[in-house]
Amino acid sequence: MKILVEHYLTYGKQDSETLFESCVIEDSKQERQGLLEDIVFDYCFDSEDDFINGKSDSFYYSRDGGDWDDPTGGYLKAYSYENKLAELQKQFDKELGRLNKQFGKGE
């Protein structure tokens, strides 16, 4: 099975984030481990083994030091096609509702 993995970088005290990269991979221990090996971090908030073994679909970490504009941490989030589609549909419905409200439609 394939999964979508999004890698976000966080800044400050995790009050700002940006999507760093996104990729589709086969959901295997080797692929998940490869993702973690590509990340430089000082502390992780989640179990590396749980992420690698597929027991967890998220992995949060922090970094020390760096300049004011360097990331202070980040996280990986893995989605199945169905889960990501549901998340996107939920976001779309929310934005559509907001737009309809602004234009006074659907009342």
UniProtKB/TrEMBL annotation:
Protein name stated in the entry: Uncharacterized protein
Species annotation: Staphylococcus pseudintermedius
Lineage: Bacteria, Bacillati, Bacillota, Bacilli, Bacillales
